[in-house]
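R.M. (postdoc): so does anyone remember the format we settled on? I'll just put the structure tokens first.
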């Protein structure tokens, strides 16, 4: 593994928001640099060293992240700071499938550690640990805390959240509360000018509209699931063949039940803003992919094929199955959901293709796309 480790965190003891980019132990130089490319792409992220398929290119925690409002309403419990699931794996599948007596074997593989869970004493918002609670408080929650355990529907933040919820039925692709967190982060900074500077890279000069654009165009989707994490852990157990087969069929059956009950809605979902990831442009033939191996909002960018120094790090903003569709379909989806015309190498190479959309693709395009 090679790569740079990036973390943005609020330092309560010094002058404000710190972004750290540090080398990991196996390298002397960071793996990436931000360069200005020119119009229409703007800036992009470029490799400064050889990376092999599977390598970690960089790892970073978000500047801010936030669970989607509807996702929280439907009972997907997540840490209010890092989005780590707060439900146990068994509790999670029981709630989603409606099967109250479903029992998950190997309970020691459940990732949820209830003993570390805590809440804001003033408003009851839940965190996976006192570390997350304290980080949230010193970064933005001192400003945003509703300071009451009972809901005041007239509070401006409640009203903003409600208005947003009814403008964006699930599945959501952005959260308005992330903007409130950006503003509160700047307001709580010991040095508000530097904090504002940190977010200014995304802000265009026309007020709220540009704030919404900030989240829509730069927000990275984050999904966490205690059941998926349990599956990952039990799959690593060294088991006798027959026990392994039994476990695999059990897991398949639970996924079938989940699919029947909630379709694709397995995860606690939200969006997050990252310093480096947000500099990654889209490609319909990406060479990197963002992953969330810790089941929280910590992002690990991995190479999906070998990358040479000077190559741009390109991720896909589209679901994998869409990447095989025609240039016309991909461009239409990107224009409608991300408001830009794609100039990735694959689209440029297919520029001469006819603007044809098959019947299947038209059907697909009718569905709500997106989800960077
Ligand atoms: C997450 S930002 C990526 C960084 C951006 N290039 C910048 O300068 O800040 C997404 C924006 O980059 C641009 N972009 C990303 N991929 C592109 C592509 N394949 N073709 C053209 N523009 C692209 C679009 O303006 C898009 O809204």
């Amino acid at each position: 593994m090679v790569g740079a480790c990036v973390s943005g965190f609020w330092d309560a003891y010094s002058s404000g928001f710190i972004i750290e980019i540090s080398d990991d132990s196996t390298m002397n130089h960071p793996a990436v640099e931000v360069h200005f490319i020119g119009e229409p792409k703007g800036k992009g992220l470029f490799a400064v060293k050889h990376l092999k398929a599977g390598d970690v290119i960089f790892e970073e925690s978000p500047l801010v992240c936030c669970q989607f409002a509807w996702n929280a309403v439907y009972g997907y419990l997540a840490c209010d700071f890092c989005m780590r699931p707060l439900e146990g794996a068994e509790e999670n599948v029981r709630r989603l499938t409606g099967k109250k007596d479903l029992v998950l074997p190997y309970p020691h593989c459940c990732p949820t550690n209830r003993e570390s869970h805590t809440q804001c004493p003033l408003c009851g918002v839940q965190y996976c640990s006192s570390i997350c609670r304290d980080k949230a408080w010193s970064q933005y929650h001192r400003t945003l805390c509703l300071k009451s355990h009972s809901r005041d529907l007239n509070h401006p933040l409640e009203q903003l959240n409600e208005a947003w919820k009814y403008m964006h039925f699930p599945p959501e692709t952005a959260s308005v509360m992330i903007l409130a967190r950006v503003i509160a982060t700047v307001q709580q900074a010991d040095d508000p000018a530097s904090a504002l500077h940190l977010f200014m890279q995304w802000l265009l000069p026309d007020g709220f509209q540009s704030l919404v654009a900030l989240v829509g165009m730069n927000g990275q989707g984050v999904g966490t699931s205690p059941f998926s994490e349990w599956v990952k852990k039990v799959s690593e157990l060294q088991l006798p063949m027959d026990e392994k087969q039994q476990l695999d069929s059990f897991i398949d059956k639970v996924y079938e039940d989940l699919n029947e009950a909630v379709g694709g809605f397995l995860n606690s979902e939200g969006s997050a803003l990252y310093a480096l990831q947000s500099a990654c442009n889209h490609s319909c033939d990406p060479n990197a992919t963002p992953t969330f191996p810790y089941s929280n909002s910590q992002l690990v960018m991995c190479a999906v094929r070998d990358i040479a120094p000077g190559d741009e790090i390109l991720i896909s903003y589209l679901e994998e199955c869409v990447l095989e569709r025609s240039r016309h379909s991909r461009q239409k989806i990107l224009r409608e959901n991300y408001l830009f015309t794609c100039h990735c190498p694959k689209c440029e190479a297919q520029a001469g293709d006819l603007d044809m959309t098959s019947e299947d693709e038209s059907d697909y395009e009718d569905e709500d796309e997106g989800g960077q």
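R.M.: ...and that's the designed sequence above, right after the tokens. Also worth knowing: The chain has two domains: 4-63+273-366, 64-222+265-270. Residues 40-44, 217-218, 278-279, 281-282, 338, 340, 342-344 surround S-adenosylmethionine (CB under 6 Å).
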